[in-house]
Amino acid sequence: MSEFLPFFRRLSAVARGVTLGAAVPDADNKAGAGGFDPVTELDRGAERALRAAIEAAFPEDGIEGEEYGLVRPEARRRWLLDPVDGTRALICGLPSWTTLVALLEDGDPVAGFIDAPALGELMIGLPGSTTLNGEAARVSGCLRLAEARLSSTDPYLFEGQEADAFERVRRAARLTRFGYDALAYARLAAGHLDLVIENKLHRHDWAALVPVVRGAGGVIGDWQGGSDFEPGSVVAAATPALFEQAVALLSR
User: Fold this and answer.
1) Which domains does the chain possess?
2) 127 in the Ramachandran plot: left (φ > 0), alpha (ψ -120 to 50) or beta?
3) Binding-site positions for Mg(2+)
4) Predicted pLDDT of residue 6
5) Which residue numbers belong to the known binding site?
């Protein structure tokens, strides 16, 4: 997988060429009258640029993106793109938005990156290693939920039993911070957070997170302790012990 490192860096530069420093255009609402799911021309432009770069380098690979769907679904290798994760942060002038790219083989995310252009941070995850701007990144090693720094994007995304489950973990953790989208997983991989819990994630949201967290020595799975991410409920933890404690409360 290390042979993809230069290409990951190139993809980061390609997307940054569209998004970084650009004036933020008005957002369209993909959700219609029933809610608010913003998308801007920066989202679309970054995905078009990423797709063009991948098509030129790997014309037989599949490509799936949040804005433009899937091509070559039969391909064994697929690139999964979220050109701007955290569009709400982007349109509010906050620096926590990221670009997510994952490389899947036979459906499994084996490598990927979380790029935070406004912060100048590129975190690349490969089997057995994760780097932040070229330097090795490692999780904190936190073993106890009572000492854990917890994060989630938005507490209002949890409803009913899921809200109750998250609240059990939140009360047991040392502290909780909200609002960082995929950047929270990069912070976990760098040792600054210990636990991230989310729900309602789509494949383009979680695929790049898996190799980044695992490459830094962390654990990432679903709320039942397995690896079925498709329902969209994700737990990432610095250690297996911390993961098990969180899952025990979430699945109770």
Assistant:
1) 2-136 (3.30.540.10), 145-250 (3.40.190.80)
2) beta
3) 66, 82, 85, 205
4) 96
5) 66, 82, 85, 205
